[in-house]
Amino acid sequence: MAESLARRGVDVAVFALFPGALAEAFSTRTGLPVYGPQQLEELMRWAPDIIHSHHVTTFHLLGDLFPGVPRVHGILGLVPDLEQLPVNLAEASRVLAVSERDRDVIRARAPDLEVEVVRNWFDDRELRLAARMAPASNACHRLLVVSSHHAPERDAALDTLAAEGLVSWERAGAGAVPREITGAYLAEFDLVMSIGRTVLLAGAVGVPCIVADQHVSDGLLSAEVVDELAYHNFTGRARRLALTAEHLRAEIERSSRLDRDALSRRIRAGYSLSARSLHFLNVYEEVLAGWNRNETQLAPRRGEGMVYRDMAIHIAQLEAMMQSYRNSMSWRITAPMRKARAMARRWLSRSPGRHTAAQQQSH
Fold it and tell me: DSSP character for 83?
């Protein structure tokens, strides 16, 4: 998205809580700056005109760094702790939700907020249809799992199918070799299993995809079920089918009969990055056109921003330590680190329902 906006003439910088190898490679390739919690002074000198944030920590942290700068906040799903609603979300000039289900949950928690549904997208640069032919239903399928989570039940089910000769599989994501997930990369496989944007990218290039997270599945994506699964942002939580070997076997065998062309046309028509970046650009222009920095009355701050900033930096440090020592330290040593990170994230994602009065006083 940052690249797409930059191609439209927007001066873009990226902030990440814990930038790593992918962020460095992205910055080198595109020339766009990527800042982390250790470069806040540099980010302040960069001085944005508008902020588009995701995650509760960045909303608070960037709001504290840039009081008076208009903000657009996008919510990508309400299951992860860091996607919970910020306690002062009403400070946002525009609130975006990635699906109707997320919008409805947000409205239930904050009835006075206006929330626009802006669906997820796939990267439509250098698109091409998958070159691989669909294997026979009883042939060995080369399957890619795109996930940042180890899932014993899912992995055991796939190992069962691998022992039967139905699949050979590998995983890309955190804990695996870090790499950019492109359409060309997905097209090297017969089948993909993932959620969110990877689902859309696989569908766009004509690669069958089982929509599943580490716990549950919505089955094989087809043109006929796109609208149904979009309501839950392609998360595997619409049908919530168990990730058993029997379920995966049936979906893999069904993939050989998938109408790939119909699915590709459906996804390309409604979910392209180029269309989304144009919409975001229009949103930014509308927000800035209605924003008068001199007349803006800033709500009195209670010091929360500084606390959230420090907590965000601490979480980033914990993440870096865990990543560094994950393969070399014992569980007894890393477990306290996991507990500390979980406690910090729970604190950062406190339910906004418990802070309604304070929110109203501040606004």
Answer: G
Assigned fold of 141-270:
Rossmann fold (3.40.50)
Sequence-distant (6+) residues with CB within 8 A of 52 are: 71, 72, 73, 74, 280, 284
**Left, alpha or beta for 73 (phi > 0: left; psi -120 to 50: alpha)?**
beta
- 8 Å CB contact between 155 and 247: no
Decide if 120 contacts 200 (C-beta within 8 A).
Answer: yes
Taking phi first (over 0 means left), then psi (-120 to 50 degrees means alpha), and beta for anything else, what does residue 339 get?
alpha
Q: Where are the alpha helices (DSSP H) in 83-208?
A: 100-109, 152-163, 183-186, 197-205
pTM, two decimals, is: 0.77
Residues in the chain: 363
pLDDT digits (tens, 9 = 90+) for 288-340: 998 865 444 455 454 555 566 566 666 666 666 666 665 454 444 455 556 66
- Between strands 191-194 and 141-146, the pairing is parallel
- Provide the residue type at 328 as one letter: S
Distance CA 194, CA 181 (A): 11
Query: Taking Cα atoms as reference points, which of 203, 229, 206 lies closest to residue 216?
Result: 229
Within the chain, all domains assigned CATH 3.40.50 are found at: 2-121+274-294+302-362, 141-270
Given this structure, which CATH class describes domain 2-121+274-294+302-362? alpha beta
